[in-house]
Known about the structure:
Chain A has 190 residues and is mainly α. Chain A has helices at residues 13-36, 43-72, 84-114, 137-172, 176-180.
Amino acid sequence: MPIRNAPSTAYTATAIALHWLIAALIVGGFLVGLYMTGLKLSPDKLKLYSWHKWSGITVLALAVIRIVWRWTHPAPAPVAGQPRWQHAAAQAAHRALYVLIVAIPLSGWLYSSASGYPVVYFGIKALQLPDLLAKNKETAAVLKELHELLNWTMAALVTVHAAAALKHQLIDHDGTLARMLPWLHRRPHA
Amino acid sequence: MKLPIHAVLTIALLSAHGGLLAAERAIDPSKSSISAVFTQMGVPVEAPFTRFTGRVDHDPAKPAEACALLEIDTASFDIGDDDYNAEVRKPEWFDTARYPKASFVANGLKPTAGGSYEAVGKLSLKGRVAELKAPVAIKAEAGGSRYSGVVVMSRKAFGVGDPAWQDTVEDPVKIKFQIFVPAAR
């Protein structure tokens, strides 16, 4: 994929791949999570819960890799010409999203442990994760609320994040979105 | 009249050991536990039976003559979630309405390596009876003895499980038990 920006102003291909992979998994995990909790108990419900947990653990692992990658490969500076407050807001939102892609899977893992269900990654017994907490109904109820609250917070932030990206693309025409979607460079823009 | 199978077994047990009844002691359920570990989507889930009773007649000098009876309320299986508990009481699983009790009747303890024993007995569940050999470790504790062990059984052998769940819940189920028997006074 051609990235025309000089290296100092571009995201690495790895950073871009991690961004979109995690984006797809959290949107999918969020929607599955919303749907599955309302189902009556059935084998399909348990399958959805398992897939939800596996994708969450995958997000956690990718998030850790992504944070390490970001430390070792700093993000490019913002596109010139933005107001200061916008840059500050974007930075705060990005930080919060980084925190959430770690905190949400962790809260889910804790909730699963407290409910008495170990997380077995991909259903492979050798990949059974340790229980972070002992089974406890009250703790589980609190963690359920926390998991939901963090998710709705993330949903709100992702909406703002995506809206801001579209504003840069459609109103400012400043090439910000193209840094995360390199194929946009093929189209002329202001 | 059709006697429930556990009643038949109880009578059989009592008649077989009529001469030893003096040494028989009731277990203390409050200091005992029985739980089952089933596996769904590769995830082991442990849940206790909260109501059970039992009697043990065991002279340490004569393990071969030891006998025991455990009776478990099938409806007391508590996964900690109402939906699950309701599912497992259905006819396809425990059918608690028709088969409110499961029982294990052991006749004889066989010494095994390391000072442990094997209890050979009959498990009756959901109207079916099958032989079950359970490893038992016996430990003296303040005020009595603790009999504990883990035994794996097949839920399908007892017709427990809705075919719809075939691919979700594995057949082998681990039973973990810790039975406390107060010492004779």
